[in-house]
């Protein structure tokens, strides 16, 4: 059975505590928005799509038992709590886009004179709950589109070796995964010779989470350290790199886990195609370029310690940005559920597909 990081039934939300993986698989209850905010901020749940889903479902759990005396008070609660959830982590855009969409829905329902406060609440909860299934469907489409793009480039008859970074699988999404969904699809098509995953220092999402998923799902996989990528490309005939995204700007610049940018530079040097796989909810057409993306800086301790064990000299200063921005010029294609877009023409191509 594939991994499930989010378990939801109306009024009940449990998440797999990713701080404990891979040593322990333990679900923790998220009983409302405060728990949701803390789980996102402390990285018990992580990965851009999963953050948005857990944030929104934590609100669903909180408002289900509550009584509201007017649609206006329900709307205010929804807006205030969603904006609070957006503040838990700054870089990934999915929570912000989900919050904006749900606030717009709440505004629309407030104005609709044909419905009362009970019906407004039901419709809001249904929209929130629909996110889980939609994310899985989107990821499967990303997998199909991405596998086709990689096989197109590498020649359809051969199996491929690919490299991925960070974690973009079932643990970072509602299921199946984005970049890891592409890897999964290649495997389903019997076209995956091998996947290499980086350790992803300092938080080790690759070694702890991606490696855990790859072993769990029995995919042919090998772990490498972040410092081995250039040597790997020279030695192992890598057909493509595929990574996720936390926020893609309108010009195709992409924020993703720290280390992504240097992999893209190395890929360019070796002529290896570099793909970003992400749902449309990771694309922020409101910002013109990556210069406008706020990069979260995390505590020094994530660099100086492994668990309780100090590995850096006491007293040394640290700089710990959690993400970097890969310039669009280094990206071969942005794989979404609606097709593979050229980063240089992203805004235009998305508008054409969505008809807006
Ligand atoms: C499918 S998610 C893509 C990204 O969110 C992922 O690569 C990543 O950077 C996760 O960062 P994290 O800091 O662990 O939340």
UniProtKB/TrEMBL annotation:
Sequence intervals crossing the membrane: none
Residues the record marks as site: Transition state stabilizer: 166
Active site: 246
Domain of life: Eukaryota
Keywords: Amino-acid biosynthesis, Cytoplasm, Isomerase, Methionine biosynthesis, Nucleus
InterPro entries in the record: IF-2B-related (IPR000649), IF-M1Pi (IPR005251), IF_2B-like_C (IPR042529), Initiation_fac_2B_a/b/d (IPR011559), M1Pi_N (IPR027363), NagB/RpiA_transferase-like (IPR037171)
Pathway involvement of the protein, from the record: Amino-acid biosynthesis; L-methionine biosynthesis via salvage pathway; L-methionine from S-methyl-5-thio-alpha-D-ribose 1-phosphate: step 1/6
GO molecular function (one): S-methyl-5-thioribose-1-phosphate isomerase activity
Primary localisation category: cytoplasm
A GO BP entry: L-methionine salvage from methylthioadenosine
Subcellular location: Cytoplasm; Nucleus
Record-listed E.C. numbers: 5.3.1.23
Catalytic activity: 5-(methylsulfanyl)-alpha-D-ribose 1-phosphate = 5-(methylsulfanyl)-D-ribulose 1-phosphate
Gene Ontology cellular-component terms listed: cytoplasm; nucleus
Annotated function: Catalyzes the interconversion of methylthioribose-1-phosphate (MTR-1-P) into methylthioribulose-1-phosphate (MTRu-1-P).
Family, similarity comment: Belongs to the eIF-2B alpha/beta/delta subunits family. MtnA subfamily.
Stated name of the protein: Methylthioribose-1-phosphate isomerase
């Amino acid at each position: 059975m594939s991994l499930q990081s989010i378990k939801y039934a109306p009024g009940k939300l449990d998440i797999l505590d990713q701080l404990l993986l891979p040593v322990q698989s333990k679900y923790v209850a998220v009983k409302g928005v405060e728990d949701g905010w803390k789980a996102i901020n402390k990285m018990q749940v992580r990965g851009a799509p999963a953050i948005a889903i857990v944030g929104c479902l934590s609100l669903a759990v909180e408002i289900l038992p509550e009584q509201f005396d007017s649609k206006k008070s329900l709307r205010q609660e929804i807006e205030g709590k969603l904006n609070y959830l957006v503040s838990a982590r700054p870089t990934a855009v999915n929570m912000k886009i989900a919050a904006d969409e749900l606030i717009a829905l709440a505004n629309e329902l407030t104005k609709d004179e044909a419905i009362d406060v009970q019906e407004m609440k039901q419709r809001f909860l249904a929209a929130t709950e629909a996110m889980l299934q939609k994310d899985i469907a989107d990821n499967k489409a990303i997998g199909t589109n991405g596998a086709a793009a990689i096989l197109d480039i590498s020649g359809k008859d051969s199996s491929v070796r690919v490299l991925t970074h960070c974690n973009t699988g079932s643990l970072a999404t509602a299921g199946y995964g984005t970049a890891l969904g592409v890897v999964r699809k290649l495997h389903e098509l019997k076209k995956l010779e091998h996947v290499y995953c980086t350790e992803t220092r300092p938080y080790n999402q690759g070694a702890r989470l991606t490696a855990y998923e790859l072993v769990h799902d029995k995919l042919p996989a090998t772990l490498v350290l972040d410092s081995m990528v250039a040597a790997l490309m020279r030695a192992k005939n890598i057909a493509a790199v595929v990574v996720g995204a936390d926020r893609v700007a309108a010009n195709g610049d992409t924020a993703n886990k720290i280390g992504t940018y240097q992999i893209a530079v190395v890929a360019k040097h070796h002529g290896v195609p570099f793909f970003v796989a992400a749902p449309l909810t990771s694309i922020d057409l409101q910002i013109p370029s990556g210069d406008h993306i706020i990069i979260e800086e995390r505590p020094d301790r994530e660099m100086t310690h492994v668990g309780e064990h100090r590995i850096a000299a006491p007293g040394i200063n640290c700089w710990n940005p959690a993400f970097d921005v890969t310039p669009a010029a280094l990206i071969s294609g942005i794989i979404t559920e609606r097709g593979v877009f050229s980063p240089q023409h992203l805004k235009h191509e998305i508008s054409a597909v969505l008809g807006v």
